[in-house]
Amino acid sequence: MQGNKGSYQGFYINLERSVRRREALEQRLSESGLAGKYLRFPAIDGSAITYGPDAARGTTILGCTLSHLSVIKSQLGKERHIHVLEDDAVLHNDIDRVFEKFVEVKRDDEWDILMTDIFLPPDLYLFKFLHERYQKLSATGSISFLDIGSWEFAGASSYFVNKRSMDRFLQMMEHAFPPETPYDLRIRELAKRGELKVFACFPFFSTVSELSSESTISGDFTHVLPLTEYRRAFYVSADLKAIAGDLEALCTEEADTLTRIYLNLVRCLVSPQHEAF
User: Fold this and answer.
1) Rounded CA gap, 168 and 161, in Å?
2) Domains plus CATH for the chain?
3) How much is the pTM?
């Protein structure tokens, strides 16, 4: 299959054995009219490789990193931005227009990575900022691009890479970290050092599917389900009532008195009437 001739080329990373994920993603891309923009890139099975002078057995985390880096290596010199997806990504139909808008407002020398959604830290004042921004943008149907270089973000299920940044990006990602450092945390660390210019579109124009709880990196991923639901809440087409219900179902234990005090404190602090000091 030939790639598209537009401003970017899309790839989705998928293990050969992950047939259900591949079929689900391909169906979503087809239903959204995006199938022609994305090519499958076979993932590297980290558990099937060895690395280093002692031939240490690889891991799924290393396989994930190598898979992402291999996609980018394959596009060196192609003079086109790329969009990299993991196979649990869900894209909004307007994802291409979001990227077009981004490259209109940002010169190529002003960005390296554009995330279309991320895991967000459960930081109180960050939530307040995002909540207010989300309401304003939703009211006008607008989008903003946030510099997340100082944020404690995670996740790399959907992101664009600047065509002019690829070689430098690869050099830093391959040589600045121990092999077992997760791929998304490498990006975060380089952003915090100021060595990568990383942005996120907001609201998010991608999210993760229900299959994300069956992580191919670390097995059962249910321990992060609450943060996954929080992440989904800022998706542009999020069903907020359903997400609120899902979180309530995850948190069934009765709160003790101290916990109730803390929860009420949080409610006060995120109120529009509260001012940080």
Assistant:
1) 11
2) 8-249 (3.90.550)
3) 0.91
